[in-house]
Structures are given as structure tokens and as C-alpha cells.
Amino acid sequence: MAESSVSMANLETSFQKFAAHGDSKATGKEMNGKNFSKLCKDCNIINGKGVTSTDIDIIFSKVKAKSARVITFEQFNQALIELAPKRFKGKSKEEALQEIYGLIVGKEPANVGVTKVTKTGGVDRLTDTSKYTGAHKERFDESGKGKGKTGREDPANTSGYVGSYKGSGTYEDKVKKA
């Protein structure tokens, strides 16, 4: 293959970011089918006409090893070589490959649909710890931060006195007087 205008190191960086996306144990050396599909969607390789998600799955299955569930960077390149003519019809293989590299380089996995905290209507009222009453009030300090276990459980009183007894600690004084 001729020396490309797009740096392979940059392409590999994008590959690693997508390969490790969504899996804390992933090394970034191998990419699974789900992440390959995500890369193709996020980088606009899937355009609905020439390339569909089905095409992506078929090409992924084609380039991976028979029993493997992941592809390496080399297999990823092979998949791009297969995808390029489908995505950029009418261009030479080399031109199409450069175009597809251009779509991928510098991209990172997009976190579309990440849940954000809402502060509308009743949510504000329900999550304002300063308005809590009763037993719930004991679970938070003045700043609204939870006290953890001490706010949920009553520690055992091992003083030997009943909880509401007012004369606790006065036994020694009474014994000395007698």
C-alpha cells in the first residue's frame, strides 16, 4: 500500500479509543463488534445508502478470525479497505481509503443519550434535604450531605442506663453519700 497522507498513528489512536469504549477492562488493542459498529456510526461511515449497519456486521465477521469475537488493528485496516469502495462509490480504492481514514482520524466515542440530572418541578422539592422531617432529617448534616451509616442506624447505648433516664452517671455520687 502506498504511503498514506493520513498518519497511521492517528488512525490507531482513534481505533484504541473506540476499542476501549464502554469496557473498563479493555486494553484498546482489540475491538469488539459493538464498538466497531459504534465507530462506523459516530464517524459517519454508515450513511444509510451505500453502507448500512448490516454491511458493517458482515465485514466485521469477514475480517475477524473464525473463533474470535474481536478484531486487531490490522484486521480493522482490512475492514476499512473493504468498506471504502462501498462508502465512496466512483473513487479509486486509494482515494476512497484516504476519505474513510479522514472520517475516522481525530474522532472519539460520542456519549449520546447520557442521562443528565434534572431539576424540574417536584424533583427540586424532593431532593432538598433542608426540608426533610422526622427520621429522614437525621440522615443528613446541615450542608445536606448524607451521614452514611450513622444517619441510618442507632448506635447501641452500652452505658447501662435506660435511654430516657435523666440521672445517668449519678450512681457513684449516690453510693458515696450512703
Automatic annotation (TrEMBL):
Keyword Cytoplasm found: yes
Q: Where is the composition biased (Basic and acidic residues)?
A: 135-155
The keyword Cytoplasm belongs to this UniProt entry's keyword annotation = yes
Major localisation: cytoplasm
Q: Where in the cell is it found?
A: Cytoplasm
Its source organism is: Solea senegalensis
Q: Which UniProt keywords apply?
A: Cytoplasm
Region (Disordered) residue ranges read 127-178
What's an example GO BP annotation here? Answer: microtubule polymerization
Family per UniProt? Belongs to the TPPP family.
Assigned GO CC terms: cytoplasm; microtubule
Q: Which GO terms describe its molecular function?
A: tubulin binding
Q: Which InterPro entries match?
A: TPP/p25
Q: Tell me, what's a Pfam family for it?
A: p25-alpha
Q: What is this protein called?
A: Tubulin polymerization-promoting protein family member 3-like
